[in-house]
């Protein structure tokens, strides 16, 4: 599976004899206080999102310090059905589904802490496992720039007024 910036993500298929199940294992490269905080935060957030009635993987296990997962902090969760589709056959239906899900997400009362950046922009470090260090350097250069000015009105509001897939705006 494709993973995140700071972790490796594996899809595991478990054969139970009469049926199979698929789970997702996220492993962090190093056991440290930062990865332990990330694991605990993700575990709590998964629970909160599910409790709010939103589709989210179910937490199976979390090992914040890596003691039970070969020294690599890890989180094990169920896998949601579906697949990534960036070229849908029915773009209008696809966009409507995205909008409905976004509305549910924004309406949910989920207790989550403030955003915590995972990269220290002042002294970024390219991971030892990076296979394309030049991409990391380019990303770090962008991180060092000033953020863009916010769009007014918000970009999400502009999306609904914009012509879609060749149709004229109404």
List the helices and strands and how they pair.
Blueprint: E1 7-15, E2 20-28, H1 33-51, E3 59-63, E4 74-78, H2 91-107, H3 133-143, H4 155-161
Antiparallel strand pairs: 1-2, 2-4, 3-4
What report would you give on this structure?
The chain has 170 residues and is of the alpha+beta class. It has a domain at 1-87: 2-Layer Sandwich (Phosphorylase Kinase, domain 1). Helix content is 32%, strand content 16%. It has helices at 33-51, 91-107, 133-143, 155-161; strands spanning 7-15, 20-28, 59-63, 74-78. Strands 1-2-4-3 form a four-stranded antiparallel β-sheet, with helices on one face. A hairpin with a 4-residue loop joins strand 1 and strand 2. The longest helix is centred in the N-terminal third of the chain and has 19 residues, at 33-51. The radius of gyration is 20 Å and the shape is globular.
Task: Spell the H/E element sequence.
Answer: EEHEEHHH
What is the share of helical residues?
Answer: 25-40%
Counted beta strands: 4
CATH class bucket of the domain at 1-87? Alpha Beta
Radius of gyration computed on alpha carbons: 20 Å
Estimate what percentage of residues fall within beta strands.
15-25%
What kind of sheet is the major sheet? Answer: 4 strands, antiparallel
Give the overall average pLDDT: 80
CATH topology tier name of the domain at 1-87: Phosphorylase Kinase, domain 1
Helix and strand content put the structural class at alpha+beta
Shape: globular
Straight-line N-to-C gap: 40 Å
Number of helices: 4
Widest β-sheet, arrangement of strands? 1-2-4-3
Task: Write out the CATH superfamily name of the domain at 1-87.
Answer: Phosphorylase Kinase, domain 1
The CATH architecture of the domain at 1-87 would be 2-Layer Sandwich
């Amino acid at each position: 599976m494709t993973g995140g910036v700071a972790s490796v993500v594996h899809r595991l298929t478990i054969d139970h004899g009469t049926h199979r199940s698929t789970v997702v294992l996220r492993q962090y490269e190093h056991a440290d206080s930062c990865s332990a905080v990330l694991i605990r935060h993700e575990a709590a957030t998964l629970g909160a999102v599910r409790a709010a009635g939103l589709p989210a993987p179910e937490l199976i296990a979390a090992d914040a310090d890596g003691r039970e997962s070969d020294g690599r902090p890890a989180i094990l969760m169920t896998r949601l059905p579906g697949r990534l589709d960036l070229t849908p056959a029915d773009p209008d239906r696809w966009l409507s589904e995205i909008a409905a899900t976004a509305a549910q997400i924004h309406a949910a009362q989920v207790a989550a802490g403030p955003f915590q950046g995972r990269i220290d922009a002042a002294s970024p470090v390219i991971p030892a496992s990076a296979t394309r260090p030049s991409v990391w350097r380019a990303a770090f250069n962008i991180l060092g720039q000033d953020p863009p000015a916010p769009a007014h009105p918000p970009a999400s509001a502009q999306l609904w007024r914009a012509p879609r897939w060749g149709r004229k705006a109404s």
